[in-house]
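Suppose a classmate hands you a notebook page containing two proteins, each written out with its sequence and a corresponding row of structure tokens. How would you begin to make sense of it? This section walks through that situation. The first entry is reproduced here exactly as it would appear on such a page.
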Amino acid sequence: MKGSFPLRFKGFHFVFEPRVFYWAFAAVKPFLSKKLADRLYFHGSNLKSLHAHFPRDSLPAQLGGSAPGYGGEELARQLLDSEHYFAEHNRYGYTADSGGVAEPPAACRPRYYPGAFCMQSGDEDD
């Protein structure tokens, strides 16, 4: 992954992961660099080990913290409210019956970063 992503990760923390996850990780671990493998933390249901890495006031109540809980309802509502956006964007790209790639509308073309995914809306033309 080195050089392929514009962020620097200090660690990946997994909480309440299923047991099958350990088997999958054991199969993948030989292919990871030691540095990356050392940055993977599996806490399971041991929230004390999670609290050793994160202050409790930054964790939601579900993880033993004092920050407000998060159930995902707001994200689900936003995604459902944006269903028309996703339906519109699913019309573009390669399809077997179109024989090629369809161009997205001007309002959805990247403006600042070539190849970036755009979630802009508007009627302005480029």
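The notebook's second entry, a different protein, reads as follows.
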Amino acid sequence: MRIAVLIVSVLLAPLAVADIYRWVDPGGNVHFSAKPQPGAEPVEVRPQVIDRDDATRERQARTERFFEARREEQEAANVAASARQAQRERECQQLQNRLSRLSHGGRYFSADAKGERVYYSDEEIGAARRQLASRISQNCS
């Protein structure tokens, strides 16, 4: 809205400083011109001021509040989407790191209820690699 007012002001500015002349030709016809003619008299042109009523101002304020709320919603949605994307990237990085560690070889184990090491078989490690690769292909781009 402010931009429209600015544009109209810029376009009407030359009219505000231009001189307008009124003259009558020999046939009795009234003419207006920016150039003075013989017998022309200057005419004062005042810009029209548009005064809005209360209902119009309220509609405009309601519209501005609506658009401001939409902008805030979109900004919040963008922030949430960025957070989700960052979380997804962290998870993908963790999955890739785990797959990389499994691919280096070595012996992998977990602790049982007694605290003793239980080593994974080659089949279990291969299954874990396939599962990680599958999750990476599904969730990471």
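A careful reader of the second entry would note: Helices lie at 2-17, 54-103, 122-139.
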